[in-house]
Structures are given as C-alpha cells and as structure tokens.
Amino acid sequence: MASISALLTFTAGCSNDATVSAAGDGALIVSHGRGNGGNEASIGGPLTWVGSCLGVGGTATVWPEGTEWDPEASTLTLSGGATLVLGEQVHGAGGFTSLDAIASSFGQQAADDLAECGVGEQDEVALFNVGSTVRAGSQPS
After folding, report:
1. End-to-end CA distance of the chain
2. Which long-range contacts link 110-115 to residues 24+ away (Cβ below 8 Å)?
3. What does the pLDDT look like over 96-122, one tens digit per residue?
4. At what angle do helices 108-117 and 99-106 cross, to 10 degrees?
5. In terms of pTM, does the model score above 0.85?
C-alpha cells in the first residue's frame, strides 16, 4: 500500500480556522479546527480503502478531527469513541467535491495526495463537516 510521506496542512478558505492534513502515514485525511457551518448532504456507507486512504463506500474521505486509525488493530476510532473495522457502516453530515475544487481550496499538493489515494479527475471526494460527529451504523431513513 502506498502512503503519503509528509504531513501536509492546508488552510480552508471557506471555513473559520480550519485545516486539512494527511495523517497516519496517509491512511487518514483529517480536518482540524472549527468550521463555518457545513453542508447538509448525507455521507454514508461501509468503511473502505481507497488506494492508500480510508474512505466511505469507495470514495476518498476527509474525516473530522479526532478520527484515528490504528494500523496494528486495523480499526478506525471516531471522535465520539466508536470503533469500526473495514466493511462496517459509518454516516454523517458533509458534502462532496471534485479533485479540481480540492486543488483550488487547499492547493495542488492536496489534490496530488488525494490522487495517490486513487482519486481521479472525474471522482468525488467526501468531506465530513469540520468538527462534526460521524456515527457508526447505517444512515437513518
């Protein structure tokens, strides 16, 4: 599995004091800080690998601060404390964007790192709202 070698931080132009960084040898891409509201789209599906990064339902994902990956146990711990293994369901509020929008908002290096995760120019990236709570389990109906 390829990994993102550097810890990269980008300032989000549309959020208050928010950054996005690659962490855990590139297994996670995590937002930090406080957001300026957020999107109301629902992101949900099984925890999956997208190239070298953890995603939701096969989509590369930016996780909220407090999310941690334990490579030895192969578990993802959400900020609220729930622990998941690959294939288990996760859901939360956020939105979707393109690789071009990531480059515009966070710089070309962010887009290049997401491309290492397996994101193509026509693919979407899921972004859980900065500071939001992601939950284990299926999306409510």
Report:
1. 35
2. 110/8, 110/10, 110/20, 113/4, 113/8, 113/22, 113/26, 113/29, 114/29, 114/53, 114/60
3. 988 888 777 767 777 777 888 888 888
4. 140
5. no
pLDDT of 2 > 90? The answer is: no
Residues 6+ apart with CB under 8 A from 14: 36, 105
Among 14-28, 54-68, 104-118, the range with the most confident prediction by mean pLDDT is 54-68
Bridge partners of residue 106, in order along the sequence: none
Structure-token match 């956020």, residue found: 94
Write out the two tokens for 66. Answer: 């407090």
Q: Over the Cα atoms of the chain, what is R_g?
A: 13
Question: Are 124 and 56 within 8 A, CB to CB?
Answer: no
Task: Provide the pLDDT confidence category of residue 33 given band limits of 50, 70 and 90.
Answer: low
Residues, the chain, total?
141
